[in-house]
Each structure stands twice: as C-alpha cells, then as structure tokens.
Amino acid sequence: MSFRLRVLWLVILVAVSATAATAWLTLRQASQQINDSATTDRAQLDQVVGRLRTYGSQHGTWEGVPDLVQALRAQTGQRIHLVADTGDVIVDTDTQENRTARPLGTMVGFVDPRPVLNLAALPAEPAREKGVVLAIAAYRTGVLFAACLTRESVPVVASPTSTGVPQFDADLGAADVRDRQGVDEIVDGCRDAAAEPDRDRAAGADRVQDCGALTAVEPLDSCLAQAFTNQISDVAPIPARVYLGARGDPASALAAGPLLAAAAGVATVAVIGTVLLSRRVLRPIDTLTTAAQRLGRGDLAGRVPVRGNDELAELARSFNRMADSLQRGEERQRRLVADVAHELRTPLANLRGYLEALSDGVITPDQELYASLLEEAVLQQRIVDDLQDLALAEAGNLAYHRVTVDLAELLETCRTAHHARAESAGVSLRVAAEPVAVHADPDRLRQVVGNLVTNALRATAAGGSVRLVASRTDTQAIVQVVDTGSGIAADALPHVFDRFWRADAARGRRTGGSGLGLAIARQIVTDHQGTITVASEAGVGTTFTITLPLPTKGRLVTPASVC
C-alpha cells in the first residue's frame, strides 16, 4: 500500500472511529438520561396517584385536596391536573397559580379511592350476602362521616380492616386541644349527619339479594363485588384522572458534564491512537531524516533499510543510491588527488633536480639537457590537458560540434595519421570498413579512435597487426579496434577505464601515456549516447568495441579531417 493511501486510511480510521465513538457515547448517555427522566416522571406520577388515592380513601371527599396537590406540585415541579370522571375539574395547579391553563401532559394516572371488598374475609354462604350488605352500610356511614369531618377541618383517620372497608374516625390526637369541646361537638354532629335512613340500606340489600340467584361461585363473587361498588359510588369520592406535566414544556436538558466527559475521553483516545499510528507511519521518514543529517555531517557510509514497495521505500532506495553515488564520488576524488599527485611528483622532481643542478653549476647546460627539460614540461602539460578534458566531460561541459560523419572515412583518416608509427614499430595497421554514417563530433570521435589505436600499437609487438573495423546493424553503428598484442589479464579488465590505469604497470610515463585516455574516451562515447566495451585474452589480443546510434535519414555526410 502506498504511503499516500496509508496516510489517507489513517485519517479516515481516526475520523470514523472518533465520530462513531462520540456518537455512540452521546447516544448512550442521552438515552440513559432520557430513560432516567422517564423513570423519574413515572415515579413522580405513581407518587402523586398514591398520595391522592390515600387522601380520597381517608377523607371520603376531594374537598381539601388542593392543598395536597399544591404540596405535590412543589415537590415534583410538575403541573398537576386532577379531573373527575364526570369531567369536572377538581384542581389544576395552573389555575391555582393564576396562569393560563396549558395543554395537558401525556403522563396520565387513574385515581380510584373507592375500597375493594375482600369477599374472602366475609362469612360463607348463606351469610355472605348479609356481610356485603353490612359492609355497604358501614362504608356509606363511615365515608359520609369522614367527609363531614374534612369539611369541618377535623383530622380523619381511616383504619384498614380485613374486609377492605376502612373504619373512619376523628383523629382527636391531631386536633386542636385548645378547643376540645368544640371538636367533640363537631364529631357528634358529623356522626348524626352520616346516619342514613333504613330505606337506603334496604335498597342495597335488594341489590345484593339479586346476586343470590346465581349458582356459580365466581359469577356470584363478581356480582357481589360489583353490587358493593355500585352501592357506595354515590357517597364515595368520584374516581378521577390525574395529568402530570404540560404538553409543550421544554424537554429536560441533557446534562452537559457526562457528554463533555465522553467527548473528552474519545478525543483523548483518538489523539493517543493518532500519535501511535502516525509514529508507525512516519518512522521511515524519521529514519531518512536521521540518515540525511549524518550524510550532511560527512558520514557517507550511512544507509537506510528498505521495506515494501511504496513511495517511502522508493525514497529510501533513491537515498541509498544518492549516498552510494556521493561515496563513490568522494572515493574517486580522493583517488584522483592521490593519482594526480603521484603522476606529477616524478616529472616535477626531475625538473627541480636539473634546475637546481644548473643553478649550482653542477652540470653544464647544453641542447640535449634543454630538450629533456622541454619533454618533461610537455608531459606535464599533456596530463593537465587530459585532466581538464576529463573534468569537462564528466561535468557535461565538454563542447561538441555534431555533424554527419562517415565512419569508414574517419577510420581511413586515422590509419593514415598513425601509419608512420605502425611501420616504425613493425605492426600492420589496416582498415576494413563499410560506409556508415553517424551524427557526432568528428574531432572527439577521432580523439577516441586515436587513443585506442595508440594503445593498440604500444601493446602489439613487431609482426603483429591492428585492424580498424566499421559495420552496422539496423539501429547501431559499430567501430572496433582489434589488435594481436599482449592482451589484458581478466582481473584487470574491470579497471581498464579507470583514471591513471595502465595495463603494464612497469611502463613509464614516456611510453605509457598519462593513463587518462580511456577514461576520456568512455565519457565522450557516453555523451554520444553510445557504449564502449573491451574484450581481451592475455597473449592473444584485445578488442575495443564502440557502438553509436544511427542518425535519422536525410543527413548529409561531412568528410572528416586528419586524425
């Protein structure tokens, strides 16, 4: 995977993970708070319903309930609307607070303060109907008594019984003892007012006796329970519905603290994850930076490990190639300085020795001495000129004047130029060439071929031969210089084109040249988009092969000058 994609996926991973985690934690926290709020609302509704049911069951009336509702409003903070099943509003906290009544909330509870008769606590048949009649009469009398006490502001206490029908009485312990006589009078008056005519009791008995015609146990119990409820409904507190809250009220605000804590936790995890992942992704860059810093301080031996095939791996390979090139260049520079110093030391020592001898009068100046000193100076000039050509060629600053050149004619010209030297050495110098045109600098090509011919003549003993060959393929022109000389050892072939290299180390500077000719020749051929190679066998001979690209059609052939 490429570095660009790795970084892209890293960013996507961090962004998606952070977003998903934040959304999940926020949703979870919000859902938890909403559930908690709903649970709280339900608990508040249950509390309000329970308190109202207790009040209605104990007091036998809804009179006086607004005070309780107001206390519940202050305790829950909710709007409370209590409405009877008949549709009459019993109490509304909005009205109590002198504000416009708002739409009712959705939290609804049913308040039924009527007791449920426990038939199991009544005598068995046939006395059960009578027990129901007595329970009806007891509740009607008791609830009317409790309602009267409530209207007179006398505390009421409702004691539970096994039948489910409470027993009502005045709570004199909670009454104002400063007017005990007045309270007793109120209680007595309420007892008298709660007494019902016997005809009402007889009516209830008739309803209960109607259930006796049923034979099955379950239907009889159901009928008796329903008869009890029907006979007390006209005196018991009316069942009511309680509405909690108001529609349109702002929802409970989510607590910001947990959400911020969740977001901060996700951000922390995302930052830590990003740092860890980025360190893993950017570690190769850190390694490259460190290696580059070492390289800048002069440590050319440092390399970076290469892993994978992405952009960073290619950058690491390029860095290693650059470091290799710099190291090789540094080594070549040191070798060049050492070689130049070595090559110039002996001639300069000779010149200095002769000049000091002349100055001291040790030797007598003559024509032969001057000729020797001139030869040494010319040798130094040739080395300096070759070094300059090589430096210009390697820097790409060597000037070329390209024209269309016939290689057959160029080789013949070079043969003519070296014919005299070949004859004096007893070596046959021949040309075997077909007309081949290339686009090149004729002077530089003659410099290359002339250097090869000179080396071949030096390496070939009397009776040997040197051949100059020109041929072509479909895309290339080929020039070969073939000699039958002493050849080059196999282990020396890789160094043929090195600076100051000589096949015969014992050969002197006067006969062996500067040792820079082949290095210059290779650079010139390379600048012509060609190649130069060597093949040799010790004692058999050596072949140098130059390949050059063929020119496009239509170029005119310009004759080459003297080599």
UniProtKB/TrEMBL annotation:
Residues 279-331 form the HAMP domain. This is histidine kinase. Keywords: Kinase, Membrane, Phosphoprotein, Signal, Transferase, Transmembrane, Transmembrane helix, Two-component regulatory system. SMART domains: HAMP (SM00304), HATPase_c (SM00387), HisKA (SM00388). It is an enzyme of class 2 (transferase). Its EC number is 2.7.13.3. It is found in: Cell membrane. The keyword Transmembrane helix applies. The keyword Iron-sulfur does not apply. GO terms for molecular function: phosphorelay sensor kinase activity. One of its GO terms (cellular component) is plasma membrane. The lineage of its organism: Bacteria, Bacillati, Actinomycetota, Actinomycetes, Micromonosporales. It catalyses: ATP + protein L-histidine = ADP + protein N-phospho-L-histidine. It comes from Micromonospora inositola. Residues 1-20 form the signal peptide. Residues 339-552 form the Histidine kinase domain. InterPro entries: HAMP_dom, HATPase_C_sf, HATPase_dom, His_kinase_dom, HisK_dim/P_dom, HisK_dim/P_sf, Sensor_HK_Regulatory, Sig_transdc_His_kin-like_C.
